[in-house]
Amino acid sequence: MKSVVAALLLLATPAFAEMKKGDHFIELDAKSAAGKAFHLKDMAGKWVLFTFGASWCAPCHKELPAWDKVAPKFKGKVLFVSVNINNNEKEGKEFMDSLKLKHIFPVFMPDENSPAMKAYDPDKMPSTFVIDPKGNLQIVQYGYDKGDEDKLATALDSLIKG
Amino acid sequence: MMFLAPIVFVGIAGTHHDTVERQLAPVFEKAGVTELVIPMPDLGQIARHTDASKEIVKRLHVDGVIGGALITAGGQKTFRIVIYDGQGNMRSLDETPLAGKKLTSGDLEVLAINLADEVGDLGKGKKPAGSGPRAEALADIEIDPPKKAPLPVPPPPPARKAVVAVVHDDDEAPPGLPQSKSAKSAPKSELATPAFADAPAETEHEAAPKQTADASAVSMDEIEAMTGGGDTLVDGGSSTATAPAPESTLHLHVGAGLALIGRVFTPPMALNGFTSTPVGGAQFAAGISPTERTSLDVMAERTLAMTTSLATSSASTVISRWEVNGGYALVHGPGTQIVANLGLGHRAFSMESTDPSRTPDNEYNYVTIGARLAQPLSERIMLRGEVELEPVFGGADGMQMTLGPSTRWGLDLGAALEYRLAAHFVARGAFDYQRFSWSWDAAGARGAGGASDSYPSGSLALRTEF
After folding, report:
1. Which residues of chain B have a CB within 8 Å of the CB of A59?
2. Interaxial angle between packed helices B18-31 and B105-124, expressed in degrees from 0 to 180 and rounded to the nearest 10
3. Is the pTM of this model over 0.90?
């Protein structure tokens, strides 16, 4: 009953704030392909770009290879992480394998039952977040269009140089 | 009892949208979306998501409005679909490049899945639009240069998404997360434990050990090693100063299939020609890509059971071919790929017969100089094409005894459509046309003219790749 009432409250709630620049990151409940837990907190001291994607998200098929091209420019400075949210983990892994990414670390966080996913709750896919070495969000970007990788690279460059 | 207003599709702005509209009709029908005709200017406003679109949508008094547009830019047609809730808030805007004038089946499938989700949410009156349109989203790339001086630990942010708390009873906090007291009182920090809060100043961070305390968790070093991003490697749990191992880019593929191979040989008048209907054969192909841009491919094909009827008997006949090609990708990436290739090949036609009326055997050893194109049509479908010029430098010439030494050269055109069945398996249908031509220096004197020897073939193959 408590859940039902709460759910009704949720429906009545007009909107929740989205993750925005300046917010502190919310920890992910993701795992690597090998089954190891992945924690953003363990990346402290580095810039981290993480992007939510899935095999059913058409732009993600272009976005991840595009980020993969940009990543070498930030070697040693920014960690690139792809958070695959396919509920079917096998499909997610096949999708990630098919992209043959070389500079992006894939982790898996099935959308279903992921509290972190509910917390980020991106309206559009793919959704890309960049956190600074202190864990504050500095870039929030929804969607992907051809050429966004150049804009992202410029933005990252500017941020890192301070 | 509450009746829900429908979700309506108001059409596609732009010209030549009939094909896409026909493709989408069953998708909308399945999703329970009804069609509604609105004035064309209004449709344009909705598709472009202008300031006026909100009011136009609200006036329709429905739960949701879907509009589309065909946009042409740089010769590429793109289909845009925009979805609004009943209040005119844009929920999503997606653009999908068209293949010719239509959406590919893969794109259509993705669109149907996304549409079903959106329509489901609209029907339930779920969250209003959070993010702005695509253009706004891009503008949302907010840049705020980090402070150079050490900053105080940021305070825990306020509750952002009550949904996390709402979906769990008080005593049902998700694994690994602190229990929340109520939806309203659940601060995000409690839900998320932003442990960067422990982080010292940035400069100290850089010098801090990069290992995670938890051996079962992914460490920063592991990520850097795997993505070629760092200067250290994890070795038995401790960092070493060795350089990262070079990322392996080695890819292999092996495939086999069935082929139909034919031949049309048109010699000078003095000799008998040869025309065969395509006969069954076997085909094998393999390749290796040691680097991103380089490749080495081999292929071989051979008829399996071919006989030729002669005046008094029939003769066992073989058409065979092999090629070895080295390639270098001139254009390389996730989209179009163009590869220049150079290699060697061998084509042979032979018949086991001493019948004087038989057509001559021929053999061609040739160089391949050409280009290959790969163009993805969708997530799973790849179109390939190739063209090769093939100067012949050797091989038995069955007409030499009669017509003297000749100059021979070949041309090869091929196309293939590949369908990715699974991550490592691809089905391939291909067509190839190879044609050799002759000329004789003394042709005029002997009245030989020219000759041609063509080999059309088709094949179906299964390929596995790693």
Report:
1. 94
2. 40
3. no
